[in-house]
Amino acid sequence: MSKLNKDILFLIFEELQKNSKSLFSCLLVNRLWCETVIPILWRNPWCYNSINYRIKSSLFIIISHYLIDDIKEFITNQRIQLPSCSNQSLLFDYLSFCRSINVDIINDIISIGSPLAYNQFFMQQKFYYLFMKKCPELKYFDMMSIKHQIFYIPEAMVRLESLCELRCDTIIDSSYFYGLSQFCKYIQRLLIVSMNPKPNHGIIKLIEVQKKLKHFEWVDNFDDDYTDYDYDPYEELLLALEKKAESLNYLKIVFFYLCNYEHTLFQDMLPKFDKLKVLIIDDYISFDEKQLEKLKLHELEVLNIERNKINVISSIIENSGRRLKKVLFDPNNIKYEPFNFNEGSLINFIRKIYENCPLIEYLSIAFSPSEEHFVELEKLLKICKNLKSLLLIIIFDNEEDTYEDYLKNGKELLKMLIRSSPNNFKEIRFCYKFKFSSEILKEFLEKWNGRHAITLFTTENLGENYIYKELTNKYKRDGVIKDFKYLPYVDLTEYITEICF
Questions:
Q1: Which segments of 307-405 are extended strands (E)?
Q2: Does domain 315-501 have CATH number 3.80.10.10?
Q3: Among the residues of 161-288, which ranges form H helices?
Q4: pLDDT 10s digits, 290-348
Q5: Which is nearest to 155 in space by CA: 136, 179, 139?
Q6: Rg (CA), the chain
Q7: Nearest-angstrom CA–CA distance, 415 and 338
Protein backbone atom coordinates (compact mmCIF):
# COMPACT_ATOMS: atom_id res chain seq x y z
CA MET A 1 0.00 0.00 0.00
CA SER A 2 2.87 2.40 0.76
CA LYS A 3 4.02 2.21 -2.89
CA LEU A 4 0.65 3.10 -4.45
CA ASN A 5 0.64 6.46 -6.22
CA LYS A 6 -1.75 9.27 -5.32
CA ASP A 7 -4.24 8.52 -8.10
CA ILE A 8 -4.67 4.90 -7.02
CA LEU A 9 -4.98 5.92 -3.37
CA PHE A 10 -7.64 8.47 -4.29
CA LEU A 11 -9.74 5.79 -6.03
CA ILE A 12 -9.43 3.53 -2.98
CA PHE A 13 -10.36 6.30 -0.54
CA GLU A 14 -13.33 7.25 -2.72
CA GLU A 15 -14.77 3.82 -2.01
CA LEU A 16 -14.41 4.52 1.72
CA GLN A 17 -16.16 7.90 1.69
CA LYS A 18 -19.12 6.54 3.69
CA ASN A 19 -16.80 4.89 6.21
CA SER A 20 -15.64 7.84 8.29
CA LYS A 21 -13.74 5.71 10.82
CA SER A 22 -11.49 4.27 8.11
CA LEU A 23 -10.98 7.63 6.41
CA PHE A 24 -9.97 9.35 9.65
CA SER A 25 -7.50 6.52 10.31
CA CYS A 26 -5.95 7.04 6.87
CA LEU A 27 -5.08 10.62 7.82
CA LEU A 28 -2.47 9.35 10.24
CA VAL A 29 -0.54 6.97 7.94
CA ASN A 30 1.76 9.44 6.19
CA ARG A 31 1.77 12.80 4.43
CA LEU A 32 0.74 11.40 1.02
CA TRP A 33 -2.25 9.58 2.49
CA CYS A 34 -3.25 12.67 4.45
CA GLU A 35 -3.04 14.90 1.36
CA THR A 36 -5.16 12.42 -0.59
CA VAL A 37 -7.85 11.92 2.07
CA ILE A 38 -8.41 15.56 3.05
CA PRO A 39 -10.20 16.57 -0.20
CA ILE A 40 -12.56 13.58 0.19
CA LEU A 41 -13.32 14.30 3.85
CA TRP A 42 -13.94 17.97 3.15
CA ARG A 43 -16.21 17.40 0.19
CA ASN A 44 -19.05 17.02 2.67
CA PRO A 45 -17.59 17.53 6.17
CA TRP A 46 -21.05 17.58 7.82
CA CYS A 47 -22.04 13.98 7.12
CA TYR A 48 -19.92 12.03 9.62
CA ASN A 49 -21.76 10.39 12.50
CA SER A 50 -18.54 10.04 14.47
CA ILE A 51 -18.37 13.83 14.95
CA ASN A 52 -20.49 15.59 17.56
CA TYR A 53 -20.65 18.99 15.89
CA ARG A 54 -22.27 20.71 18.84
CA ILE A 55 -19.42 19.75 21.21
CA LYS A 56 -16.29 19.47 19.09
CA SER A 57 -14.84 22.80 17.98
CA SER A 58 -12.39 21.62 15.29
CA LEU A 59 -14.54 22.81 12.39
CA PHE A 60 -15.24 26.11 14.17
CA ILE A 61 -11.49 26.69 14.49
CA ILE A 62 -10.86 25.98 10.81
CA ILE A 63 -13.74 28.08 9.48
CA SER A 64 -12.90 30.98 11.83
CA HIS A 65 -9.41 31.05 10.35
CA TYR A 66 -10.84 32.30 7.04
CA LEU A 67 -12.42 35.41 8.56
CA ILE A 68 -10.54 38.56 7.57
CA ASP A 69 -8.93 40.62 10.34
CA ASP A 70 -11.53 43.42 10.24
CA ILE A 71 -14.34 40.93 10.72
CA LYS A 72 -12.44 39.18 13.52
CA GLU A 73 -11.99 42.52 15.33
CA PHE A 74 -15.69 43.35 14.96
CA ILE A 75 -16.67 39.89 16.20
CA THR A 76 -14.40 40.21 19.22
CA ASN A 77 -15.95 43.59 20.04
CA GLN A 78 -19.36 41.90 19.97
CA ARG A 79 -18.07 39.57 22.70
CA ILE A 80 -18.16 36.57 20.38
CA GLN A 81 -15.42 34.18 21.42
CA LEU A 82 -13.15 33.06 18.58
CA PRO A 83 -10.67 30.22 19.15
CA SER A 84 -7.22 31.48 20.13
CA CYS A 85 -5.55 29.45 17.39
CA SER A 86 -7.67 30.93 14.58
CA ASN A 87 -4.73 33.15 13.57
CA GLN A 88 -2.40 30.22 12.96
CA SER A 89 -1.76 29.07 9.41
CA LEU A 90 -3.59 26.03 8.08
CA LEU A 91 -1.95 23.01 6.45
CA PHE A 92 -4.64 22.92 3.73
CA ASP A 93 -7.06 25.29 2.09
CA TYR A 94 -9.95 23.23 3.48
CA LEU A 95 -12.89 25.26 2.23
CA SER A 96 -11.62 25.01 -1.34
CA PHE A 97 -12.46 21.29 -1.18
CA CYS A 98 -15.95 21.79 0.26
CA ARG A 99 -18.93 21.09 -2.01
CA SER A 100 -21.71 21.20 0.56
CA ILE A 101 -23.54 23.33 3.12
CA ASN A 102 -25.60 21.99 6.03
CA VAL A 103 -27.42 24.82 7.79
CA ASP A 104 -28.32 23.00 11.01
CA ILE A 105 -24.77 21.77 11.62
CA ILE A 106 -23.19 25.13 10.78
CA ASN A 107 -25.59 26.74 13.25
CA ASP A 108 -24.50 24.23 15.90
CA ILE A 109 -20.84 25.00 15.21
CA ILE A 110 -21.43 28.74 15.43
CA SER A 111 -23.22 28.39 18.77
CA ILE A 112 -19.82 27.46 20.23
CA GLY A 113 -18.76 31.12 19.84
CA SER A 114 -21.75 32.75 21.52
CA PRO A 115 -25.12 31.73 23.01
CA LEU A 116 -26.76 35.03 21.95
CA ALA A 117 -29.21 34.80 19.02
CA TYR A 118 -28.10 38.12 17.49
CA ASN A 119 -24.42 37.13 17.53
CA GLN A 120 -25.20 33.74 16.03
CA PHE A 121 -27.26 35.34 13.27
CA PHE A 122 -24.39 37.68 12.42
CA MET A 123 -21.84 34.86 12.43
CA GLN A 124 -24.05 32.69 10.22
CA GLN A 125 -24.15 35.46 7.66
CA LYS A 126 -20.36 35.76 7.64
CA PHE A 127 -19.84 32.01 7.43
CA TYR A 128 -22.21 31.66 4.47
CA TYR A 129 -20.35 34.47 2.73
CA LEU A 130 -17.11 32.52 3.25
CA PHE A 131 -18.58 29.35 1.77
CA MET A 132 -19.93 31.13 -1.28
CA LYS A 133 -16.58 32.81 -1.82
CA LYS A 134 -14.31 29.80 -1.23
CA CYS A 135 -16.26 26.78 -2.52
CA PRO A 136 -15.54 26.43 -6.25
CA GLU A 137 -18.93 24.75 -6.75
CA LEU A 138 -21.80 23.63 -4.54
CA LYS A 139 -23.22 20.13 -5.00
CA TYR A 140 -25.16 19.50 -1.79
CA PHE A 141 -27.26 21.99 0.21
CA ASP A 142 -29.24 21.10 3.33
CA MET A 143 -31.09 24.31 4.15
CA MET A 144 -33.43 23.06 6.87
CA SER A 145 -34.14 25.94 9.32
CA ILE A 146 -32.30 28.53 7.21
CA LYS A 147 -32.81 32.19 8.14
CA HIS A 148 -30.66 33.94 5.51
CA GLN A 149 -31.40 34.76 1.88
CA ILE A 150 -27.98 33.58 0.81
CA PHE A 151 -28.67 33.91 -2.91
CA TYR A 152 -28.14 37.67 -2.47
CA ILE A 153 -24.46 37.00 -1.74
CA PRO A 154 -22.54 38.05 -4.93
CA GLU A 155 -21.03 34.62 -5.67
CA ALA A 156 -24.19 32.66 -4.80
CA MET A 157 -25.65 32.54 -8.30
CA VAL A 158 -22.55 30.89 -9.77
CA ARG A 159 -22.19 28.46 -6.84
CA LEU A 160 -25.83 27.38 -6.73
CA GLU A 161 -26.07 26.80 -10.48
CA SER A 162 -24.11 23.57 -9.95
CA LEU A 163 -26.37 22.30 -7.13
CA CYS A 164 -27.18 18.57 -7.46
CA GLU A 165 -28.95 17.82 -4.16
CA LEU A 166 -31.22 19.99 -2.04
CA ARG A 167 -32.89 19.17 1.28
CA CYS A 168 -35.44 21.66 2.62
CA ASP A 169 -38.71 22.03 4.51
CA THR A 170 -42.03 23.69 3.72
CA ILE A 171 -41.98 26.31 6.50
CA ILE A 172 -39.27 28.22 4.63
CA ASP A 173 -40.93 31.20 2.96
CA SER A 174 -42.00 30.74 -0.66
CA SER A 175 -39.93 33.76 -1.72
CA TYR A 176 -36.76 31.84 -0.87
CA PHE A 177 -37.63 29.12 -3.35
CA TYR A 178 -38.65 31.68 -5.96
CA GLY A 179 -35.12 33.07 -5.65
CA LEU A 180 -33.51 29.63 -5.92
CA SER A 181 -35.63 28.72 -8.95
CA GLN A 182 -33.98 31.53 -10.94
CA PHE A 183 -30.69 29.66 -11.20
CA CYS A 184 -31.03 26.21 -9.54
CA LYS A 185 -32.41 24.27 -12.52
CA TYR A 186 -30.28 21.14 -12.55
CA ILE A 187 -31.05 19.60 -9.17
CA GLN A 188 -31.00 15.80 -9.40
CA ARG A 189 -32.00 14.92 -5.82
CA LEU A 190 -34.74 16.89 -4.06
CA LEU A 191 -35.72 15.95 -0.49
CA ILE A 192 -38.60 17.86 1.12
CA VAL A 193 -39.92 17.64 4.68
CA SER A 194 -43.46 18.98 4.96
CA MET A 195 -43.96 20.73 8.30
CA ASN A 196 -47.61 21.69 7.73
CA PRO A 197 -50.39 20.82 5.27
CA LYS A 198 -50.47 24.28 3.66
CA PRO A 199 -49.05 24.23 0.10
CA ASN A 200 -45.75 26.07 -0.44
CA HIS A 201 -46.01 27.62 -3.90
CA GLY A 202 -42.29 28.40 -4.00
CA ILE A 203 -41.42 24.71 -3.74
CA ILE A 204 -43.89 23.94 -6.52
CA LYS A 205 -42.13 26.51 -8.72
CA LEU A 206 -38.72 25.04 -7.88
CA ILE A 207 -39.91 21.57 -8.93
CA GLU A 208 -41.36 22.90 -12.17
CA VAL A 209 -38.10 24.49 -13.37
CA GLN A 210 -35.94 21.40 -12.82
CA LYS A 211 -34.51 19.82 -15.98
CA LYS A 212 -32.72 16.73 -14.60
CA LEU A 213 -34.69 15.69 -11.52
CA LYS A 214 -34.04 11.98 -10.84
CA HIS A 215 -34.63 11.50 -7.11
CA PHE A 216 -37.64 12.98 -5.26
CA GLU A 217 -38.69 12.52 -1.63
CA TRP A 218 -41.64 14.11 0.18
CA VAL A 219 -42.22 13.27 3.85
CA ASP A 220 -45.05 14.75 5.92
CA ASN A 221 -43.78 15.52 9.42
CA PHE A 222 -46.31 17.47 11.44
CA ASP A 223 -48.80 16.93 14.27
CA ASP A 224 -52.13 18.07 12.96
CA ASP A 225 -55.47 16.40 13.54
CA TYR A 226 -57.17 16.04 10.22
CA THR A 227 -59.81 18.62 9.44
CA ASP A 228 -61.75 18.98 6.26
CA TYR A 229 -59.55 21.51 4.48
CA ASP A 230 -61.16 23.48 1.68
CA TYR A 231 -58.10 22.69 -0.45
CA ASP A 232 -56.15 19.60 -1.39
CA PRO A 233 -52.64 19.95 0.15
CA TYR A 234 -51.13 17.64 -2.49
CA GLU A 235 -52.77 18.53 -5.79
CA GLU A 236 -50.32 21.24 -6.91
CA LEU A 237 -47.36 19.11 -5.87
CA LEU A 238 -48.60 16.04 -7.75
CA LEU A 239 -49.32 18.03 -10.92
CA ALA A 240 -45.81 19.53 -10.84
CA LEU A 241 -44.29 16.12 -10.14
CA GLU A 242 -46.20 14.50 -12.99
CA LYS A 243 -44.29 16.68 -15.44
CA LYS A 244 -41.03 15.09 -14.22
CA ALA A 245 -42.16 11.51 -14.78
CA GLU A 246 -39.77 10.99 -17.70
CA SER A 247 -36.65 11.74 -15.65
CA LEU A 248 -37.49 10.38 -12.17
CA ASN A 249 -36.06 7.01 -11.17
CA TYR A 250 -36.55 7.35 -7.38
CA LEU A 251 -39.86 8.35 -5.79
CA LYS A 252 -40.58 8.37 -2.05
CA ILE A 253 -43.98 9.62 -0.88
CA VAL A 254 -45.06 9.78 2.78
CA PHE A 255 -48.40 11.61 2.78
CA PHE A 256 -50.54 11.82 5.91
CA TYR A 257 -53.84 12.67 4.27
CA LEU A 258 -53.82 11.44 0.69
CA CYS A 259 -56.44 8.81 1.53
CA ASN A 260 -58.83 11.55 2.73
CA TYR A 261 -59.39 12.90 -0.78
CA GLU A 262 -61.74 11.24 -3.20
CA HIS A 263 -59.83 12.18 -6.34
CA THR A 264 -57.59 9.58 -7.96
CA LEU A 265 -54.89 11.93 -9.22
CA PHE A 266 -51.98 10.03 -7.63
CA GLN A 267 -53.28 6.63 -8.70
CA ASP A 268 -53.88 7.81 -12.27
CA MET A 269 -50.50 9.52 -12.63
CA LEU A 270 -48.33 6.78 -11.09
CA PRO A 271 -48.27 4.60 -14.27
CA LYS A 272 -46.60 7.52 -16.08
CA PHE A 273 -43.51 7.09 -13.88
CA ASP A 274 -42.35 4.12 -15.93
CA LYS A 275 -38.65 4.94 -15.46
CA LEU A 276 -38.79 4.37 -11.71
CA LYS A 277 -36.20 2.10 -10.15
CA VAL A 278 -37.28 2.82 -6.57
CA LEU A 279 -40.85 3.34 -5.35
CA ILE A 280 -41.53 4.00 -1.65
CA ILE A 281 -45.07 4.81 -0.48
CA ASP A 282 -46.13 5.07 3.16
CA ASP A 283 -49.87 5.73 3.06
CA TYR A 284 -52.97 3.74 2.30
CA ILE A 285 -53.84 4.42 -1.33
CA SER A 286 -56.76 2.60 -2.86
CA PHE A 287 -56.22 1.27 -6.39
CA ASP A 288 -59.01 -0.17 -8.49
CA GLU A 289 -58.43 -3.01 -10.96
CA LYS A 290 -58.19 -0.67 -13.95
CA GLN A 291 -55.51 1.44 -12.29
CA LEU A 292 -53.52 -1.62 -11.25
CA GLU A 293 -53.69 -3.01 -14.76
CA LYS A 294 -52.06 0.17 -16.09
CA LEU A 295 -49.37 0.18 -13.42
CA LYS A 296 -46.49 -1.45 -15.32
CA LEU A 297 -43.18 -0.30 -13.83
CA HIS A 298 -40.76 -2.38 -15.89
CA GLU A 299 -37.58 -0.68 -14.58
CA LEU A 300 -38.50 -1.14 -10.91
CA GLU A 301 -35.79 -2.60 -8.65
CA VAL A 302 -37.00 -1.58 -5.17
CA LEU A 303 -40.60 -1.66 -3.95
CA ASN A 304 -41.51 -0.50 -0.45
CA ILE A 305 -45.23 0.00 0.15
CA GLU A 306 -46.76 0.34 3.60
CA ARG A 307 -50.38 0.34 4.82
CA ASN A 308 -51.91 -1.17 1.72
CA LYS A 309 -53.55 -4.38 0.57
CA ILE A 310 -51.40 -7.39 -0.19
CA ASN A 311 -53.11 -7.77 -3.58
CA VAL A 312 -51.88 -4.27 -4.58
CA ILE A 313 -48.26 -5.28 -3.89
CA SER A 314 -48.80 -8.60 -5.68
CA SER A 315 -50.20 -6.83 -8.74
CA ILE A 316 -47.29 -4.37 -8.96
CA ILE A 317 -44.86 -7.29 -8.69
CA GLU A 318 -46.66 -9.23 -11.42
CA ASN A 319 -46.58 -6.24 -13.78
CA SER A 320 -42.96 -5.31 -13.07
CA GLY A 321 -40.16 -6.05 -15.52
CA ARG A 322 -38.63 -8.93 -13.50
CA ARG A 323 -35.90 -6.61 -12.21
CA LEU A 324 -37.04 -6.33 -8.59
CA LYS A 325 -34.24 -6.80 -6.08
CA LYS A 326 -35.98 -5.55 -2.94
CA VAL A 327 -39.62 -5.98 -1.89
CA LEU A 328 -39.97 -4.41 1.54
CA PHE A 329 -42.78 -3.66 3.97
CA ASP A 330 -43.64 -4.09 7.61
CA PRO A 331 -45.96 -7.12 7.45
CA ASN A 332 -47.98 -5.69 10.35
CA ASN A 333 -48.97 -2.67 8.24
CA ILE A 334 -50.42 -4.67 5.35
CA LYS A 335 -54.09 -5.51 4.85
CA TYR A 336 -54.67 -9.22 4.28
CA GLU A 337 -57.58 -11.43 3.32
CA PRO A 338 -57.27 -14.30 5.79
CA PHE A 339 -60.08 -16.41 4.42
CA ASN A 340 -59.26 -16.10 0.74
CA PHE A 341 -56.12 -18.02 -0.30
CA ASN A 342 -56.50 -17.35 -4.00
CA GLU A 343 -56.36 -13.86 -5.53
CA GLY A 344 -55.00 -11.34 -3.04
CA SER A 345 -53.88 -14.02 -0.60
CA LEU A 346 -50.52 -14.65 1.04
CA ILE A 347 -49.94 -17.75 -1.03
CA ASN A 348 -50.61 -15.75 -4.18
CA PHE A 349 -48.09 -13.15 -2.99
CA ILE A 350 -45.39 -15.79 -2.44
CA ARG A 351 -46.06 -17.21 -5.90
CA LYS A 352 -45.85 -13.77 -7.53
CA ILE A 353 -42.41 -13.38 -5.97
CA TYR A 354 -40.89 -16.61 -7.26
CA GLU A 355 -42.63 -16.31 -10.64
CA ASN A 356 -41.68 -12.67 -11.33
CA CYS A 357 -38.61 -11.80 -9.22
CA PRO A 358 -35.63 -13.92 -10.30
CA LEU A 359 -33.23 -11.22 -9.04
CA ILE A 360 -34.80 -10.72 -5.60
CA GLU A 361 -32.23 -10.14 -2.83
CA TYR A 362 -34.16 -8.59 0.07
CA LEU A 363 -37.70 -9.68 0.88
CA SER A 364 -40.34 -9.05 3.54
CA ILE A 365 -42.94 -11.76 3.78
CA ALA A 366 -45.81 -12.87 5.99
CA PHE A 367 -47.38 -16.27 5.97
CA SER A 368 -49.69 -18.54 7.88
CA PRO A 369 -48.01 -21.56 9.52
CA SER A 370 -49.92 -24.04 7.41
CA GLU A 371 -48.35 -26.86 5.43
CA GLU A 372 -49.32 -25.21 2.14
CA HIS A 373 -47.60 -21.95 3.09
CA PHE A 374 -44.42 -23.76 4.14
CA VAL A 375 -44.41 -25.60 0.80
CA GLU A 376 -44.73 -22.34 -1.17
CA LEU A 377 -42.06 -20.62 0.92
CA GLU A 378 -39.65 -23.48 0.25
CA LYS A 379 -40.31 -23.16 -3.50
CA LEU A 380 -39.38 -19.50 -3.23
CA LEU A 381 -36.10 -20.32 -1.47
CA LYS A 382 -35.18 -22.86 -4.16
CA ILE A 383 -36.09 -20.66 -7.15
CA CYS A 384 -34.83 -17.24 -6.01
CA LYS A 385 -31.09 -17.98 -6.12
CA ASN A 386 -30.01 -14.37 -5.38
CA LEU A 387 -31.93 -14.06 -2.12
CA LYS A 388 -29.71 -12.64 0.63
CA SER A 389 -32.10 -11.51 3.35
CA LEU A 390 -35.56 -12.49 4.51
CA LEU A 391 -37.89 -10.80 6.99
CA LEU A 392 -40.53 -13.27 8.22
CA ILE A 393 -43.64 -12.86 10.31
CA ILE A 394 -46.41 -15.35 11.07
CA ILE A 395 -50.00 -14.14 10.84
CA PHE A 396 -53.37 -15.86 10.90
CA ASP A 397 -52.18 -18.52 13.30
CA ASN A 398 -54.68 -20.40 15.40
CA GLU A 399 -55.64 -18.48 18.55
CA GLU A 400 -55.36 -21.75 20.44
CA ASP A 401 -51.72 -22.24 19.41
CA THR A 402 -49.44 -22.96 22.32
CA TYR A 403 -45.78 -22.31 23.03
CA GLU A 404 -45.08 -25.81 21.70
CA ASP A 405 -46.77 -24.85 18.40
CA TYR A 406 -44.48 -21.83 18.08
CA LEU A 407 -41.47 -24.05 18.73
CA LYS A 408 -42.69 -26.44 16.05
CA ASN A 409 -43.00 -23.58 13.53
CA GLY A 410 -39.49 -22.38 14.37
CA LYS A 411 -38.06 -25.87 14.00
CA GLU A 412 -39.73 -26.38 10.61
CA LEU A 413 -38.45 -23.03 9.38
CA LEU A 414 -34.83 -23.68 10.41
CA LYS A 415 -34.89 -27.13 8.80
CA MET A 416 -36.22 -25.54 5.60
CA LEU A 417 -33.42 -22.95 5.58
CA ILE A 418 -30.80 -25.67 5.86
CA ARG A 419 -32.42 -27.70 3.05
CA SER A 420 -33.28 -24.97 0.57
CA SER A 421 -31.76 -21.55 1.23
CA PRO A 422 -29.67 -20.24 -1.70
CA ASN A 423 -25.90 -19.90 -1.52
CA ASN A 424 -25.99 -16.10 -1.16
CA PHE A 425 -28.37 -16.20 1.81
CA LYS A 426 -26.85 -14.45 4.84
CA GLU A 427 -29.54 -12.71 6.91
CA ILE A 428 -32.90 -13.55 8.43
CA ARG A 429 -35.24 -11.52 10.61
CA PHE A 430 -37.66 -13.58 12.70
CA CYS A 431 -40.53 -11.35 13.74
CA TYR A 432 -43.13 -12.51 16.26
CA LYS A 433 -44.40 -15.99 17.02
CA PHE A 434 -41.17 -17.71 15.98
CA LYS A 435 -39.56 -19.49 18.90
CA PHE A 436 -36.55 -21.79 18.96
CA SER A 437 -35.32 -24.18 21.56
CA SER A 438 -31.59 -23.91 22.26
CA GLU A 439 -31.15 -27.49 20.96
CA ILE A 440 -32.80 -26.71 17.60
CA LEU A 441 -30.89 -23.42 17.23
CA LYS A 442 -27.62 -25.22 17.97
CA GLU A 443 -28.43 -27.92 15.40
CA PHE A 444 -29.20 -25.22 12.82
CA LEU A 445 -25.92 -23.39 13.46
CA GLU A 446 -23.90 -26.60 13.31
CA LYS A 447 -25.36 -27.42 9.90
CA TRP A 448 -24.93 -23.80 8.74
CA ASN A 449 -21.18 -23.99 9.34
CA GLY A 450 -19.25 -23.59 6.08
CA ARG A 451 -21.74 -21.17 4.48
CA HIS A 452 -21.88 -17.38 4.54
CA ALA A 453 -21.73 -16.14 8.14
CA ILE A 454 -25.35 -15.42 8.97
CA THR A 455 -26.88 -12.38 10.69
CA LEU A 456 -29.89 -13.17 12.87
CA PHE A 457 -32.47 -10.61 14.02
CA THR A 458 -35.28 -11.60 16.35
CA THR A 459 -38.10 -9.82 18.14
CA GLU A 460 -37.78 -12.42 20.91
CA ASN A 461 -35.22 -11.22 23.44
CA LEU A 462 -33.23 -14.46 23.47
CA GLY A 463 -30.01 -12.60 24.24
CA GLU A 464 -31.05 -12.13 27.87
CA ASN A 465 -31.19 -15.90 28.32
CA TYR A 466 -27.80 -17.21 29.48
CA ILE A 467 -28.02 -20.41 27.40
CA TYR A 468 -28.79 -18.56 24.16
CA LYS A 469 -26.15 -15.92 24.90
CA GLU A 470 -23.45 -18.54 25.37
CA LEU A 471 -24.64 -20.37 22.26
CA THR A 472 -24.62 -17.34 19.96
CA ASN A 473 -21.31 -16.06 21.31
CA LYS A 474 -19.71 -19.45 20.59
CA TYR A 475 -20.86 -19.45 16.97
CA LYS A 476 -19.81 -15.83 16.57
CA ARG A 477 -16.29 -16.83 17.58
CA ASP A 478 -16.44 -19.76 15.15
CA GLY A 479 -17.48 -17.44 12.29
CA VAL A 480 -20.89 -19.07 11.78
CA ILE A 481 -22.82 -16.04 13.07
CA LYS A 482 -21.82 -12.60 11.82
CA ASP A 483 -24.17 -10.79 14.20
CA PHE A 484 -27.08 -11.56 16.49
CA LYS A 485 -29.47 -8.72 17.34
CA TYR A 486 -32.64 -8.30 19.32
CA LEU A 487 -35.10 -5.86 17.73
CA PRO A 488 -38.20 -4.96 19.75
CA TYR A 489 -40.03 -4.10 16.51
CA VAL A 490 -39.89 -4.76 12.78
CA ASP A 491 -36.98 -2.74 11.40
CA LEU A 492 -36.41 -2.01 7.71
CA THR A 493 -33.96 0.85 8.29
CA GLU A 494 -30.85 -0.98 7.14
CA TYR A 495 -32.66 -2.28 4.06
CA ILE A 496 -33.74 1.21 3.00
CA THR A 497 -30.42 2.94 3.70
CA GLU A 498 -28.66 0.50 1.38
CA ILE A 499 -30.70 1.84 -1.55
CA CYS A 500 -28.41 4.07 -3.61
CA PHE A 501 -29.48 5.51 -6.96
A1: 326-328, 362-367, 389-394
A2: yes
A3: 174-180, 201-208, 235-242, 265-269
A4: 888 888 999 999 999 888 888 889 999 999 999 999 998 887 777 666 544 444 478 88
A5: 136
A6: 27
A7: 26
